[in-house]
Amino acid sequence: MDRIFRALADATRRDIVRRTLATEASVSDLAGAYDMSFAAVQKHVAVLEGAGLVTKRPHGRERIVRGNPDAIRRAQRLLDAYEQIWRDRIGRLDALLNEPPQK
Amino acid sequence: MDRIFRALADATRRDIVRRTLATEASVSDLAGAYDMSFAAVQKHVAVLEGAGLVTKRPHGRERIVRGNPDAIRRAQRLLDAYEQIWRDRIGRLDALLNEPPQK
DNA sequence: GTAACGTACAACCACATGGTTGTAAATACG
DNA sequence: CGTATTTACAACCATGTGGTTGTACGTTAC
């Protein structure tokens, strides 16, 4: 989970995720889209792959990158759990206000 | 957005968010809960505050920390958008398979 | 077969991060 | 009042991160 959020904490990497969720792209396709070296983009892709946010599939001499919605959903579930914890707190406060203590 | 994900990319900070969404706690309350120095926990809280994931409210000599669900929801919206992008891709593929090209 | 392309990886650099200790200010307690 | 508590912040250290360049290797194209 650390790695998923860490990977998403960079605008370039979020953009790579966004792109590859919409359309597959080779590493050099991606490298062409950003104003940095090929190696830098390749490292970003490696970080995303390490977090499970993208997968790479060899196709000839290219590596085709595709976004992985499962990793996204894992992060979503954690955030959902946090929001639920907050809702529970609100629920407890409401209960306290509306139903005076018994006994 | 960078800061929100960056802040969530640490297990201690996620736990602080979880705790303070459920129940307010002073910085020293939090510090007592983890096996590290007070200053380390205080820095984690500062990172979370910088990301808007928690807010601090002074109460006497203590600072009461509470989780902020709005920041959580901002991250959720971004992840939701990503999942929608993926669904759109699947939708396009389905359309391509089920309706042969016109003209 | 040779040349060009796409990728991987190592080495390096500046800077951020997560931890430590120490010190100082503000507030509460006796 | 003086003392203890809570917080803030600076300085420091080891390690990680985001970028660079250079090199090597497999694959495609001619």
Automatic annotation (TrEMBL), chains A, B:
Signal peptide: none annotated. CDD domains: HTH_ARSR (cd00090). It comes from the Bacteria. Transmembrane segments: none annotated. Gene3D superfamilies: Winged helix-like DNA-binding domain superfamily/Winged helix DNA-binding domain. PANTHER family: SLL0088 PROTEIN, TRANSCRIPTIONAL REGULATORY PROTEIN. This is Transcriptional regulator. It comes from Demequina litorisediminis. The lineage of its organism: Bacteria, Bacillati, Actinomycetota, Actinomycetes, Micrococcales.
